[in-house]
Write a structure and sequence with these properties.
heterodimer, A: alpha/beta, Rossmann fold, six-stranded mixed beta sheet, four-stranded antiparallel beta sheet, about 30% helix, B: mainly alpha, ABC transporter involved in vitamin B12 uptake, BtuC, 14 helices, globular
Chain lengths: ~260, ~350
């Protein structure tokens, strides 16, 4: 039940080895979250899994086939990515930007078929952007803008969606709203969701599978209960964490923490 | 907003094509040999005097066509280069591609121009070799360790490479003959020197073919605007598209400037105006940039040769007269928003 797996991969960035002998299986139709300190290689791992960065050793498999043997357009039908930062083209409307997600399914000139239009409609209503679909993306709030990029990824109609720190510029309420939306997407549409998150408690609340990393290697990957332990967090973040139970969800929660001595 | 924009698109195309036609009429009517509009019309439909036929078909028409086609080529090249660098201030002249092309051109003029009857057909190829040399040098020097291109560095290196190639061109031309030197010097000012049908017959298919190839990149270039990583995961082969954009920018700009002289700022001005009018969709801005480039260059050339009859002013000077201040305006606006 693993469509995506990395077998002892090595990834270099400018001759420096960032990921070393990394072994990973992403469970299908679930939410997986990668956590770890700054510079541990989380984003690099996401870039390797999405073929943005090449790997120099080992193999990443997608549906039993080497990732680097896929054509870019074929890959874009199987996986979508929401990168950490995006550039909004000037004056572009929500609908026009979401339509870019249809690129892997289109001819060269981006002419929309009626099926394309239906899927764009669906992506827009799914992300509750109907009211602003003809507004320019510049004019939207941060939370709405993040939903536009997600709608673009949805319009790609991929089974797998990667997100790199999707909650970064959002306030508490919007963070929660986004995570609930991803959960719904996972439950109702069986999408496999893989993301990098900084907020441990959000990760613990919404993940089925957690991957903790440090220095380019996976320290522990498993269920939330297996990863959110004092020993593991000490190992990964060099912190002494107080782990308790979330009264709303029953999931482990990090109440407070201190620098580990 | 989108439907409104779509409707106005047709209007823009009609209005700009009408503008091209008016500029054409304006230009064909003006010159040291005075022709009335009626005479022009009569001549165009085949009822002209020997003199008006000579003036119109041998002097004005080829020159007008070269200005229109060259202007379009430079504008499309500018658009492509802006996409390649991810910077709306990029211009094929500022980045040194024109200087590279001039080097190729001067080599041709010095050693091959008399080699056979239709040797002038080779001009765009020589200019292209010069242009691609400059492009390779600039891109190689501007690449940082992690293989990304720093835009500020690119522009500074472009200026340096530009100075280097211009120096070589002037040095070579000075060594060769007074004639070559005055040709090179007036070329640098943006003088439309190519005025014969043979030049039309080579520049027209050159710009037409490469502009059509560039149009195939229009939609991928749209997606590139959202960032390389995002474009990659939406199915764009980023490297392939970018390299093609650069190659076509060099082909179009070298071929065009070889004929119309060193026209700077046009590749910046035309795409910018196009974006102001129809937004950021390359499928719309590429053709509109081409039309605007044509109009601006033809107008500049017409004004330069008709208002200052005794000592015509090169078109490049008029383009720079508008383009220079516009560039400064954009620079200031850009600084404020960052």
């Amino acid at each position: 039940m693993f469509r995506v797996s990395a077998n002892t991969i090595e990834v270099k960035y400018d001759k420096k080895i960032i990921l070393k002998d990394l072994l990973l299986h992403i469970p299908d139709k679930s939410i997986s979250t990668i956590i770890g300190p700054n510079g541990c290689g989380k984003s690099t791992l996401l870039k390797a899994l999405t073929k943005i960065l090449p790997y120099s050793k080992g193999q990443i498999l997608l549906d039993g086939q080497a990732l680097n043997s896929y054509k870019t357009k074929e890959l874009a039908k199987k996986m979508a990515l929401l990168p950490q930062s995006q550039i909004t083209p000037a004056q572009i409307t929500v609908r026009e930007l979401v339509a870019y997600g249809r690129y892997p399914h289109q001819g060269n000139f981006g002419i929309l078929s009626s099926q394309d239009r239906e899927i764009i409609d669906w992506a827009i209503s799914k992300t509750k952007l109907n009211d602003v679909e003809n507004a320019t993306v510049d004019s939207l709030s941060g939370g709405q803008r993040q939903r536009v990029w997600i709608a673009l990824a949805l319009a790609q109609q991929t089974d797998i969606i990667y997100l790199d720190e999707p909650t970064t510029y959002l306030d508490l309420a919007h963070q929660l709203e986004l995570m609930k939306f991803l959960k719904q997407l996972n439950e109702e549409e069986n999408r496999t969701i893989v993301m990098v998150l900084h907020d441990l408690n959000l990760a613990a609340r919404f993940s089925d599978y957690m991957i903790s990393m440090n220095s380019g290697q996976i320290i522990k990957a498993g269920t939330v209960e297996e990863v959110m332990t004092t020993t593991n967090l000490k190992h990964v973040f060099q912190i002494d964490a107080v782990i308790s139970k979330d009264p709303y969800t029953g999931k482990p929660i990090c109440l407070s923490y201190n620098t580990s001595l | 907003m989108a439907p409104k924009r779509r409707n106005s698109l047709l209007l823009y195309i009609l209005v700009t094509l009408l503008l091209v036609f008016l500029t054409f009429l304006f230009s064909i009517n003006l010159g040291s040999y005075h022709l009335s509009l009626l005479e022009v019309a009569n001549t165009l439909v085949g009822h002209g005097s020997d003199n008006s036929i000579l003036v119109l078909f041998e002097y004005r028409l080829p020159r007008i066509l070269i200005a229109l086609v060259g202007g379009a080529g430079i504008a499309v090249a500018g658009s492509l280069l802006q996409s390649y660098t991810g910077n709306h201030l990029a211009d094929t002249g500022l980045l040194g591609l024109h200087a590279g092309a001039s080097f190729g051109l001067i080599i041709f003029m010095s050693f091959f121009s008399q080699s056979f009857l239709y040797a002038e057909m080779l001009i765009p190829f020589f200019a292209f070799i010069g242009g691609i040399l400059a492009a390779i040098l600039i891109v190689y020097l501007a690449k940082s360790k992690n293989r990304t291109i720093n835009t500020n560095k690119l522009i500074l290196i472009g200026i340096a490479v530009s100075a280097l190639f211009n120096a070589i061109t002037l040095f070579l031309s000075l060594r060769l003959s007074d004639e070559t030197y005055s040709f090179a010097a007036s070329w640098l000012l943006g003088n439309i020197w190519a005025r014969d049908w043979i030049h039309v017959s080579i520049i027209l298919p050159w710009v037409a073919i490469f502009s059509l190839l560039a149009y195939r990149l229009a939609h991928p270039l749209n997606l590139l605007q959202v960032g390389d990583e995002f474009a990659q995961t939406t199915g764009i082969s980023v490297k392939y598209i970018k390299n093609n954009a650069l190659l076509l920018a060099v082909l179009l700009s070298s071929g065009s400037v070889a004929m119309v002289g060193n026209i700077s700022f046009l590749g910046l001005l035309a795409p910018h105006l196009a974006r102001q009018l129809v937004g950021s969709d390359y499928r719309l801005t590429l053709p509109l940039s081409a039309i605007l480039g044509s109009i601006i260059l033809l107008l500049s050339d017409t004004i330069g040769r008709s208002l200052f009859e005794a000592n015509p002013i090169p078109a490049g000077i008029f383009v720079a007269f508008i383009g220079g201040p516009y560039f400064i305006f954009l620079l200031l606006k850009n600084n404020r928003s960052v």
